[in-house]
User: Fold these one by one.
Assistant:
Number 1:
Amino acid sequence: MRVKTFRGESMQAVLAQVRQELGPEAVILGSQTVRENGIALCELMAALEQPEDAPPQGPAEPQVQPLAQPQVAEARPARHTEWTAPATRTVSIPASPVADWSREWDEIKGHLLALLRPRMAFDSLAPRQRLALEYLEREGVDEASILALFHSIVERRENTVIPALSRILHVKPLTPQSATGAAQLFFGPSGVGKTTTLLRLALAAHKQSPERRVVVANADGGRGKGRLMLRHFAELSGLVCLEVNDPAEFTQLAASAATGDAVFVDTPSFRREGEAEAWCREMGISGQPGLTGHLLLSPLFSPTQTAHFLRAHRCQPLESCIWTKLDEACSYGSLVNVAHASSLPVSALTFGPELTQGLAPASAKAVWKLLFKHQLPGEYPDTSDAGV
């Protein structure tokens, strides 16, 4: 199988390239819209199933020799791309019909946005608004979010971009006080910082109210490192450390939080779409009051990774998004993209390696400083909304 990627200004132009190079028998494996030097391009991955030129395995040695010389030039490309064939077959088998449709819809939406992009007449905006939207594009804000911002500004005839951004990117601060009354569940991919963020909040709650019972719970039975880390800091700081593995234990955690305890739960990492929701149903979490979820993501993830993690961890308990490892990122457009795609408010911002520092409740000022000036919380006097 010969696999090649083509790019062009339009779908018609790319299809013409495919037909010219691979012929009418080519099969389209996938398509997406990509940006190159600020220009939206259509990208297609196409394949051509080539006939098997390898000689049959048998004692007919004389039959192999005549075919060896004339086939050398064409056999090398076939061997060069042979490794892609198994991967293509694996990807073509979707995990579920819902996941397959989700990916197809993302591709269709990308093509629609590419067609709508020329209709966004930035010249109709005020100079400051146009500069702000162009800056957000350079920061990695996707076309769907830029289009929503553009229409929001035009329809309301606003003079600045911040009101339109505020309607997309909401803020709901997460503090030890706001965590009262419900057990806080932390969802996210492996390595994003779930355990560290959980401990930061637990230690802050213990410091503010030493008499309050603070519980850290591990629900990820397959990850020994996180369990040991929770137990270690619980013993050092006077926290209660528990293991939860079934619906009855999650019900007990919800009851404990309802009585005034501060409860923080580390959940497994999920890799496939729908896994988090299935796990929540299995544990009796979905629909149960007293259990609140937070999705942890990092701006270090690529747009494709972020979209996949959002689909894999989407579940009923989710009420906010926490952004981690902000000090390691160089752009923050993904905050706008995830808020627009998921409608989840930003609740907290984390940065740096210290457990006793590096976590700030989200505020409008903190988000705008991060997005437009790349300033982390703590690099300016406060993170309140005053002076935005």
Note: The CA atoms of residues 168 and 327 lie 24 Å apart.
Number 2:
Amino acid sequence: MGARTPLEIVAREIVACRACPRLVRWRERVGRERVARHADEIYWARPVPGFGDPSARVLALGLAPAAHGGNRTGRIFTGDRSGDFLFASLHRTGFANQPASTSREDDLELQDLYVTAVVRCAPPDNRPTPEERDRCLPFLEREIRALTELRVLVALGGYAWNGALLALASLGHVAKPRPRFAHGAAAHIGPYDLLGSYHPSQQNTFTGKLTEAMLDAVFERARGLADTDRSS
């Protein structure tokens, strides 16, 4: 077997991780008990690695896998309403070859974009503890380091925004003063641009707090920043 890339190595380590007992118990319980609409499916029920273009200049960052989304399918933002909204936007803005992400076996391909999360296991009530987050952050740091063409991080929600700031600080890129999260917020941190967007959760999309046009605008801005020539 040939040598693995840094992204492949970190993905294998993510999938094998059992560092957080509470999250291990929860993700496996959800996988055993399932919900009626997915009763006949075999759940992934393991930590979920990032995926996408290894030459990506843009990274989209979420909070954690959904219990019956990524925890079921094994791919972040896949198989739930948040992912439906996100990937439709990525398709409209030219980052994805199709508007839906349904399983690891579908034909989805990402161009110039990598998708990942701060925490890799589905947490109870979608609320990881600070300690669980901190145990997971080195995986994000390694993904950022391995994405050698990366220019822009898009934080989907305040949790992802704070996670991105922590990961970048660990890599030696500290933002001073610390930028505050808002939809459309932007900060230049070391060699990266950080953009904020409301999370594409049903709570935000069903109420109109986040619209298709709003999310598209963030990813269009990300592409523009990635295209900016900073050599001068």
Note: The chain has one domain: 6-227.
Number 3:
Amino acid sequence: MKARRLVVGSLGLAGAGLATLAVGLRVDATRAWFAYLDAWLFGTSIAVGALLVIMTGHATKASWMVITRRPMESVAATLPVFALLFVPLAFGLDRVYPWANHGAAGAWVAHAIDHKRVWLSKPLFVVRTALYFLVFCVVAALLRGWSTENDARHRPELVRRMRRLSGGGLPLVVLTLTWASFDWSMSLQPDWYSTIFGFYFIAGAYVGAIALACVILPLVSPGRAHAAFSPDLAQALGRVLFAMVVFWAYISFDQLLIYWIGDIPEEVSYFARRTAGSWTAVTYVIVFGHFVLPFFVLLNRRLKRHPVVLAVVGGWVFVMQFVDVYWQVLPVHDQAGARPHWLDLGAALFVGGLSCAWIVRRYRTAAPLPLHVPELAEGLGYEAAV
């Protein structure tokens, strides 16, 4: 009954968000499309990040990660939803991407992207996005299907398939997400490029997914899955969140440092735009909120072992990851400074509400823990090292 109320409530919020976006398309169409892209890009990155978490668990045979499998499978199951949500965005590309509307692009941008004109074309962009989602959805569906099939009847070959697909498919999924990040986020400023941007985007996606797992696990249905989230398992999950927050910060700083040292105008344009006006304050919020604060909290072993504290930290990091994606997208439109808009809330409600309803529905269709897997008993009895 609780799950049903949550689904109905989430769909209600999604409906309110959709109505808000519909009004926004009449009031300020360009701002509405930017808000929608921001929410869609964040949600998609979290879904792919959840897929990476699943594949990491299978490939490494980490016994304790068995507790994250069903929640992450449910989150990754939203990938077909985000593929469908891209369809309306395909009709608004010229509103958000300068390369899609050459008449609105400045002379410098037009000259800078002249040699990219074939690659940065709307038909090829849509085809590439379809291919990206094909890879993500097929891998997620196979892992989910084999996992639930193994619940019904133990088949060792299914476990081997999941491990082989995860180990062999990780490079493919990572490379696909790298190219997707170039298209979906980096091409918002087509006269700028970074060879490390893919790592930055992937690190954020993984951090967001792990942070969401920290929030979901203490909230899942009472019973075996709830009891499984012991302090030792919370500590293990907290360690991964800590490591990925540090990795995200390292990649972010590395990217900034390289361009700052070079100090070439066209190369620092990305950061110059995101430190203009009140965007400077947003940058500092990300630095301290996404790294400094979680770093010192997660450094404490005792705090990591408390599921409620870990859930609060995970929720905070999840919100900061949303701010980071906002920082990637909105400076292209609001160049003078950050201007939060009611359309941002509408887009977040629509995409978030729809995603939440789908996640809950998918989670309820399978056992809370994967059954008949070799690492289950060891994972439930996991003891963290001091």
Note: DSSP finds 17 helices and no strands in the chain.
Number 4:
Amino acid sequence: MTHVPETRAVAHLEDVRRLYRMGSEEVHALDGVSFDVQPGEYWSIMGASGSGKSTLLNVMGCLDRPSSGTYELGGEDVNTLSDDELSEMRSRRLGFIFQSYNLIAQLDVLENIMVPLFYQDEPPADGEARARQLAERMGLGERLGHRPNELSGGQQQRVAIARSLVNDPDLILADEATGNLDSQTANEILDLFDELSREGKTILFVTHESHVAERASHVLRMRDGRIEQIIDQRLGAQATS
């Protein structure tokens, strides 16, 4: 029998805790979180305000470090990395999409898409060609020279999605990515995420909306810094803690 090696998780969290001190008070924003994200999975993270979902996203995006526990991204333990190495990790392995788009007002569409490439050693022409291709895919081919204030909300989010893809990341992190959009535009953006998922992209999408979470392969519900429930929607299976 041929041995098939196990696929390494894109993200592995084991007993991850994040403690904040506010004066004499300790706040456990994450309190023993453990789960794996496998290549090609589409996760939705849900929970009420203060449940820990934003802290979890910050930890998984290497914007914050665990107070204790293990977080491995692509097999590397982020707690062993220097700040410079973490920045390198973010620029090469991660793609970010935010509710407020976080585009740079002084840059045009093409330049905004190329921002993650500014920190990489790559011929500029190669990066520009890939950025133009992504812009075309997002329906922005006629908008390359426009700045963010000349775009609709939906167009700005498409720029943000293209920017998140330009470095071919291991993991795409989306924080309430449809929160500022009307329902029709939000559905168009969610259709794009569905398409990316079908292509094998690994996605983590923080949302408070059930109809958004229903599109994902996995739903993780948080409460008080802990995982309350994980649902594999492909199987209808549930795991609770």
Note: The domain at 11-102+169-240 is CATH 3.40.50.300 (Rossmann fold).
